[in-house]
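Fig. S4 source data, part A: sequence.
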Amino acid sequence: MRVLLAPDGFGGLLSPQAAAAAMAAGWRAGARHDEIVVAPLADGGPGFVDTLRASIGGRLLPFVVRGPWGEDVDAAVLLAGDTAYVESAQAVGLALVPDDRRDPTRTTSVGLGELLRHARETGARRIVVGLGGSGTVDGGAGMLAGLGLAGAGGRLAGGGGGLDELADDDLAGLPALRADWSGVEVLVACDVDVPLLGLQGAAAGFSPQKGATPEQAQHLERALARFARVAGAALGEVERPNLLAEPVAFGHHHGAVPTASARSGADRLAALPGAGAAGGLGFGLALLGARLVPGAAVVADAVGLDARLAGADLVVTGEGRFDWQSLHGKVVAEVAHRALAHGLPTIVVAGEVLVGRREQAAEGISAAYAVSETRAQVAAALADPAGTLTARTAAVARTWSPRPR
């Protein structure tokens, strides 16, 4: 049997490449007779640049930018032909924020703006921005400041919590900044397809995992709404509704996407699938005129996943936490949908499994297995993530791989 191993990374514990290697070791231990093909993936979050570089090559250019708290951090631009790839998590990732300093009302995305400026200075005509795993919830306001948007008394760069204090004309320079970037095609590879606001948006859906209290999450929701209103006023006729627009294709079957004719200006951009990705960075980039697409699909296309699926008998994917977010544009769902088109079964091996069997089946997933279920198993996984993933994958291989006769 030919088994395709196509996992994402496991949180901050294992990169996609390390996860794939651990799973490969486990499958070989459990089913030595099988042929294994490894295809690490990413969804726009951590590992985006490294995964693409392993597949498409290119030059990695190092830079120093400001991190979520304004400190210097190392980041890189992957230049392949006339396309530059950047990873938001390298500049503003949650992994850069110590546990005792996680406060998304104050962390900023300024560093991503600086990284984008470096990417444009390479001469790239196209920039692909991977979004995911951020430690910020500022709607991309800090990023716009990092790109050179002035005014607002420094509130754009001070974190999401200060955006509710924006004056009506604080983003008056936004049309000029948008025009300045009009000569560069910007494609945004989002790790999730959620909007900016609402129950599954940047604040309510994701700020708690970045350290926000319930009160801070509500504050951030109001602040992002204010930011969107001021941005809409600044754009005015620049971002007009297109009455002939068709729905944007993002994801597979998670409901209708609002058309441009249904909304106007920044309201429409805030409702776009992916606008809430990475603490609202999707929205901030859309204000510049960028196009939002599923990050997992971008990477899957780049690594030639469909061609690899064509020769497989079974697909194994995985991530650190298989939950509701996984079904909104992440690697597991992308792999399952593509495998289903090839008539292949997909199984998931994840650190935790929080998606029920009915929801799994609806996504084309045949089974899901957790590395950790008890407190003792969680402790063991944290102490040795690669070893425990290898062991769990070996057990799965013995279940799924037919014995040769």
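Fig. S4 source data, part B ends here. Residues 48-297 form a domain with the Glycerate kinase, domain 2 fold (CATH 3.90.1510.10).
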